[in-house]
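A quick aside before the break. I want you to see a complete sequence-to-structure record at least once, exactly as it would be stored in a machine-readable document. Don't worry about memorizing anything.
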Amino acid sequence: MKLTRLPLAIALLALSAFAQKAALRGRVTDESGAIVPGAKVSLSGPAGPARTAVSGRDGAYSFADLPPGGYTVQTSAPGLVLRSPASVSAVAGSQTLDLVLSVAVEKQQVTIEEHGAPTVSTEASANASAIVMSGSDLDALSDDPENLAADLQALAGPSAGPNGGSIYIDGFSGGELPPKNSIREIRVNQNPFSPEYDRLGFGRIEIFTKPGTDKFRGDLGYNFANDRWNSRNAYAAQKAPFHLNELRASVSGPIGKRASFNLNANRDWTDNGNVINGVTLDPQTLLAGPYTGAFLSSLRRTGFTPRIDYQLGANHTLTVRYTYGRDDVRNAGVGGLSLVSRGYHNVAPSQTVQVTETSVMGAGAINETRFQYFHPTSASQANSTGYAIQVLGAFNGGGNPLGRSTNTQNSYEFQNNTSILRGAHAWKFGVRLRGASETSVSPQNFAGTFTFGGGLAPELGADNNPVLDGSGQQVLVNISSIESYRRTLLFERSGFPAAQIRQLGGGATQFSINTGNPAIAGSQVDLGAYVGDDWKARSNLTLSLGLRYETQNNIHDWRDFAPRIGVAWAPGGASGKSKPKSVVRAGFGVFYDRFGLGNTLTAQRYNGVVQQQYIIANPDFFPNVPTVSLLTGPVPPSSIQQISSTLRAPYLMQSAAGFERQMPLSTTVAITYANSRGLHQLRSRDINAPLPGTYVQAAPGSGVFPLGRPGQVFLMESAGLFNQNQLIVNATTRVNQNFSLMGSYMYNHAMSDTDGLETFPADPYSMAGEYGPAATDMHHRVSLGGTVAPKWGIRFNPMLTANSGPPFDITAGQDLYGDGLFNARPGIAANPNKPGVVATRYGPLDPSPAAGEMPLSRNFGRGPGQIMLNLRIGRTFAFGPTREGPAASSGSGGPGGLGGGGRGAPSTPFAMGGGGGPSGGTPSANRRYSLTISMQMRNVTNHNNPGAIIGNITSPLFGQANQPAGSGGGIFSENANNRRLELQTRFTF
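That is the input. The structure line, written in tokens, reads:
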């Protein structure tokens, strides 16, 4: 009997011993479902002192070796609390308890903590290839909205796909970029295969604004800059004028015991010397020569952004944010090739309303309802009326074709998202419904435009007579566009008839004019729905599965299903006692792009009924503009634009694989390979161009037309291709509160046969040579930014971006195929001595390719690279009485506030030891007042970064840039000076 009882006794002892070893794990999130890193979790039990843990970057916490019994769990994070302590009974094995924190409106407080050291995790939203910026790291970015957008795009790099990066504000698509002093956090490339988003994750930028605070806090900032501190624009003969005054103010605080507010306001006065750089004619001698000048353009910007966070009940929180902005720009449109006469006045007010309601529906379930209304308007008035003159690649003169234009838009967005945590599964599903309407009055080109291009023409001697060869024949050469314009004016002064002027190489190449009703209105609706599950199959393995469906009402496409899948695996496993050191990730997804309302309105406007658009080749009536009914010569029916009946939403199939590693010195490194293949990409084509061999360039109106009548029919279609391969290396280090850096390198190779709807094939009947480098094919890009605070309370915020040159298209500057376009490409000359051949660094090019000559492929040229180093240097001086309680920031409190991180962001400190900067931060001394003085320097090295390269071989500026990079991208740009210094002061209380 004793021998038979021994095994049983041993088994009972083993079971008893095993029962002594229990474990508790879980994840800490806020009411919106965002994970909360840095949350303090305390565990008190039947015996012994309370134990504490801190949630990691993925929001996970764990306790091991727990004696059996009942335990009480409490947790908190800055601005967030657990409504009631949780109870759990520890038994043998591992148990899971997920904790949901709510907004602590009654007492919102943030403790200044050290930078959370970056880690790797198998959580879907904790990919180490993401960039998260908050607190002092934001100081590396510009305060100016246009430059801020450029900095963010540079930080994100060339996105996977042809359309650039996408920006979301507090979860909403579209809308205006908020002022930087209202931004709490910026995330780039986080969770790229999430089904919640319609756009590609690589290149996605998410911006989150600041909530209110528990006590009244505020700041007042002033930024000043003057051209005396700056360097000359490389494309101006003299230093262009520049003057900037910016006022920034914010205040936040409580509204009773259940609400808080945050209010931001700004007022800007900016005068910028727009640099004109082209080639013009002397009015007296008609000699062509370079022309540079600077014409003052002014911006007056006003902004007002209040936000209120209100706790409706124990489980419901309401956030309301309103934004009003107004830009008033005078002398817009001047610069580059556009002369002063092309200027116009633009006034653009906008309003945005955002409402978010967050509900906690029991343990581990959260629902969030969002609504946004965006109402931008604009009104433009040309400074001078009359016909426009476009001398290709030389200058743009005459009146501005805008006339008096107005545009009113209304955009609505409704979202409902639900997150549910059940054991090892984190479910999320939701729907997004968007509606947009637009009313536009656009008398665009109602006064007409004369276009002058170059081409083959007789060589003229000093007496302006044709040069003859030995056999008495005229010597033919290729002349530039400005030379063609010069000959037109010269021979008109001499009284030559139009036919003779054209024989001598003069005369306008094209005349276009629009007539009809300038008003148009339209609307559209699109719907997106998704479901996803992040399944923690094992402690070291997470599977993310999702499906998204999208559709819209203005195209006949109802099949847009977008599956998503992601895998994150930690080799070697990960226990509750240790975090993984390495993570392998892989994913695949389909991403659709919507067909914009503006495209639909374009087709409705230029349908030949609402407006008539006439394009006339070789007009002989310059400079007179007769009415359409009195035009002499062949007048084709109006050009129309159509949407293909088979058009469908373009989409990309993206796959990626990566390796993430936790390194010494609080550093993580991520290496990612991404492949994107795009189908049904948008492009346009003239489906009524003259049949091959039937069009004679010297005979306007010639040709056999497929539709039986002359006139262009521009068809919008979805038949393009896009292929891209990227290798991305990200590194993040946060040694301590005084030193953090984030950097990335990207190799990018993108090929396509279209760069969007404005892309037409050079030959309307051949796609040969159209597949070439995409516009985004910049092979190398490097970015580096962060915070360095060495001594004496001085803080440095560098931001370095560098990239190799983008491609550009080389064109012949002529309408070779009778489609009214000037995008035909030259051929590689078989005979360098052929009349008209142009010698270039790409070899001898023939503007009128003969049979058998191979034309250049699309985007054959390659521009120079760019280097931009920006730096902010600042110091904060603290004074006044000591605050009660820990130091707090104007960005504290609310869901996912600073310190809590929100949605996977690491806790980020403010500048310590007097390093606080203008964008947000408090000094280490817990004083009531602080004064921050800083200097923002853009392009510290004064490196000349050329902008877009002129690819027209008949342009006198062929192969050159006439503006720095970043110019001409909007109505107003601060590009007067190459290196710019800006003094910034900020008072905080």
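Two observations worth writing down. The mean pLDDT is 85. The longest helix spans residues 2-19. We'll return to this after the break.
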